[in-house]
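User: I'm preparing a small set of examples for a lab meeting where we compare how different chains pack in three dimensions. I only have the primary sequence for this one, and I'd like the structure in token form so I can line it up with the others. Please keep the answer compact; I'll paste it straight into my notes.
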Amino acid sequence: MSRLFASVRARATLAATLVVAVALVAAGTAVLLSLRSNLLGEAGTQAERSAREVATELAVGTRYADLSLDVDDRPVQVVDDDGVLVAASEDLERISGTGVDAVKPRPAASPGGEDDDADDDDSGESLEPGEIGGRITVSDGSATVDGDTEDYRFAAVPVKTEDRGTLTVYAGAPLSAEHGAVNTALTVMLIGFPLLLAVVAWVTWLVTRRALRPVEGIRREMAAITASEDLARRVPVPGTHDEVARLATTTNETLAALESSVERQRGFVADASHELRSPIASLRTQLEVAAAHPELLDLDGAVADTVRLQRLAADLLLLARLDAGERPADARVDLAALAREAAEGRAGVRVRGDEGVVSVAGSRGQLGRVLANLLDNAERHARSVVEVSVRWDGDTALVAVADDGEGVPAADRERIFERFVRLDDARSRDDGGAGLGLAIARDVAVRHGGTLTVHDAPAGGALFELRLPGDRAGTARDM
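Assistant: Understood. Below is the structure token output for the 479-residue chain.
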């Protein structure tokens, strides 16, 4: 079990660590992408600003030689309509990503040789002389300026001049800051994430161990109860009012129910042994006397003791089946017909209030046993008459058995349904019963989803009411 708890802690720790790891990877990826996007956007903005500055100079007619192309050592190209490099940064040694690989401009053509009538630039915009295009093209590439090679983001800005046609200015902004920031963030994540995961795993392991500590206490106590077979012991209930506390409470309730069941079983075995001892001893005595003196054999007494043993064995067997959870059959049983059958041949027993078929679902044999036990009990205590009625009470089938005897005191109306319980007055009048009849009757009633209670009868005796769930409408349709 200790290994089980360790496994639970390990699984919980692993699960928490994996969840946090997935969340960190997702968050880290989002941060890196957002950071890179923002830095690339800033580099593009810087490149566009540089390109527009040069385009502004070209728009006002500044000569190529006078352009501000070497500010901040950034690569700049000026390309005409034919894709010919007409101006470039002085220290530009290599460039890629602009579509023009040339780094040295050609000698400028005469103004008359240029296409002054060109109205459209390569971007598709129609520009007026001196106007700078609004459509900016952004691309990534690299360049070598004064021996230093870096990655750049280039912005292409078109401009229409008076005498040189449409020119395109390419200006680059270095991506070193973007690369540095992304690499730094990535390094921090690669170092910090494992440390954070280690902290999460350690904290989860400690928290899980603390949470499972009461469970370990419950396990130890249950193991001790199993070893000692002392069902009076109980597991400790933590004061946390959580699932573990509810588990401990439920475990104690289960132990209490088990203890009660075992005590009932022990009492049942003891009472059964006591009840069996008397008829067996009597029967043995009679047989031993008969063996020595056959003329003294009390045959009627031996038969009576044998019948008593047979009935007691049948009662014990039925109780054992009920305790084992035997489910009653799902047959349709007519209680009215069953009551008439049980009352047949019994002097002083009257069945009244016949409403036809009163049908319920259950075991005909077990329900017949209930009626027989109730009638046996009523006959033993009645002065002269026993009345049985079977009727519907709403959708509930009601069987009432009343006698005109002394009745049952209110304090004993639940006690008489316990096994092997016989009231003092009943014991003096008992003709051999073991005190199991009413216990069997109530157990069968409960197994059929019903109830069995006792009240005062109108004639002053005891009134036993058996209520069972039925289907009055369905019974009427079946008739």
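A couple of notes for your slides: The radius of gyration is 52 Å. The chain has three domains: 1-228, 243-321, 328-478.

User: Perfect, thanks.
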